[in-house]
Amino acid sequence: MEMTLRWYGSRFDTVSLKEIRQIPGVTGVITTLYDTSPGEVWSRERIRALKREIEEAGLHISGIESVNVHDSIKIGDKDRDLYIDHYIETLKNLGEEDIHLVCYNFMPVFDWTRTELARKRPDGSTVLAYNQAAVDALKPEDMFASISKDSNGAVLPGWEPERMEKIKELFEAYKDVDEEKLFANLKYFLEKIMPVCNEYDIKMAIHPDDPAWSVFGLPRIIINLPNIKRMMSMVDDVHNGVTFCAGSYGTNRANDLPLMIRSLKGRIHFAHVRNLKFNSDDDFEEAAHLSSDGSFDMYEIMKALYDIGFDGPIRPDHGRMIWDEVAMPGYGLYDRALGATYLNGLWEAIVKANA
Length: 355
Ligand SMILES: [Mn+2]
What we know:
alpha/beta; binds manganese (II) ion; TIM Barrel; 4-stranded antiparallel sheet; 8-stranded parallel beta barrel
């Protein structure tokens, strides 16, 4: 595996490449062109400039998170072929620049959903949290307003204000899209992009829905092992794989994370590893990466990745806000650096114990 950190680009991220370069064991970044909209073609010039900036800092691009999928593709409306063509063009340009991993998601309307961005934990750190009763009490159009006040001024991925302004229209556009339709639209998309993925050896790694169940009555399909297996078998190509996000699949306590990892051997192209602390089945908060701070056994998760021979990029995921850092919620430097170091320590111990 290669340890990486997510980076939103110098215009958007409070963390610098220099700081990332100084986290022991972190050699790559997972990045994006954060100011592009879903459906826009990424130019080779911009990809090359991003690549150069990262390489000049002594790092490299380990993958893209994300190239977002336009709503027309998820809805399956009349414009989808146009946006799929744009997506293919972007993949081609990434491939030409020697980039071979793309994370994306297929969640309708909302990206990840949380009800609090700064819940205080006993140690005084603040974390993202989710409470089902709080979601049930909200209208979807109020969701954005309810969390944006805690965003430290950052634009949250998937929660861009211009997108949220159109939320009622988006709900209307998705009204006939059920789980079966969403699966069919995902299949259509994957079949169209697989040729370019094969040509340039680009591994597509779908990110799970977070939380891993339906929110506001919208269909959610990338939520558990049977659904992932269905997704992989409906377009059976090694380039059609997954981002194994422990914190997202782990929101549903019925998901056995190490077992899922072992069942997905060869198709996990990217891993997000983080911990959650459950207060009940319907209320969880993001914890430090350390096993004892949350509800997951992080050793077992890393051991499962080791056992399947995982050799892709891995990254610590959302961190707590600690030491008075002000950053995009979940994406400060300090706690993610601690997370990377802890995960590297687990990995070293596993490698040596199995030598
Ligand atoms: Mn994730």
